[in-house]
Amino acid sequence: MEKKNLIIITALVIGLILLSFLLFGKKIMFGQMNLSGQAQSADLEEKPVPFFDRPQNQGKPVVTIKDGAFDPATITVKKDGSAIWVNRDAATRSIKSDHFNVSRITTNGTAELTFSEVGIFKYYCGSNPSMKGTVIVEE
């Protein structure tokens, strides 16, 4: 009798799994694969590409504003090239220079500047002048 009950229970479980698959399709996951053998990522929503992974931003120098400092403090850019500043501080920051200005970079915000002149350009934070940096623009 026990063997017969075990067979009935097994058949019911298999039937429920198959019924669930028919009703919900690829939503049923077992580990990293679904019942059709496709990777789980095929069922996820498409996520936006992170800012720095976008093709137009790759290879550009990035200055992180964090803990009251520009990091790195000095960057090198090719003429007509761009650099990106990203603010990881809690405070809104600005970039001031005799050659360029960015009035506001909010927390987690970014700014991009393109440099068309060769030279060495010093800059500082408008709200904290002790924060200083340098952009070296080369041919």
Strand order of the largest sheet: 5-11-10-7-8
User: Can you name the CATH architecture of the largest domain?
Assistant: Sandwich
Write the CATH fold name of the largest domain: Immunoglobulin-like
Count structural domains.
Answer: 2
Provide the residue-averaged pLDDT. 77
Written as H for each helix and E for each strand, in order along the chain, the element string is HEEEEEEEEEEE
- Can you summarize the main beta sheet? 5 strands, mixed
Can you give me a brief rundown of this structure?
The chain is built from 1 helix and 11 strands.
Report on this structure.
- There is one protein chain.
- The chain folds into 2 domains: 42 residues, no CATH class; 88 residues, Immunoglobulin-like, CATH 2.60.40.
- The chain has a 5-stranded mixed β-sheet with strand order 5-11-10-7-8, with no helix packed on it. The chain has a 4-stranded mixed β-sheet with strand order 4-3-6-9, with no helix packed on it. It has a two-stranded antiparallel ribbon with strand order 1-2.
- About 17% of the residues have low confidence.
- It has 1 helix and 11 strands, in the order H-E-E-E-E-E-E-E-E-E-E-E.
- By secondary structure, the protein is of the alpha+beta class.
- Helices cover 17% and strands 38% of the residues.
- Strand 3 and strand 4 form a beta hairpin.
- The N and C termini lie far apart (88 Å).
- The longest helix has 23 residues.
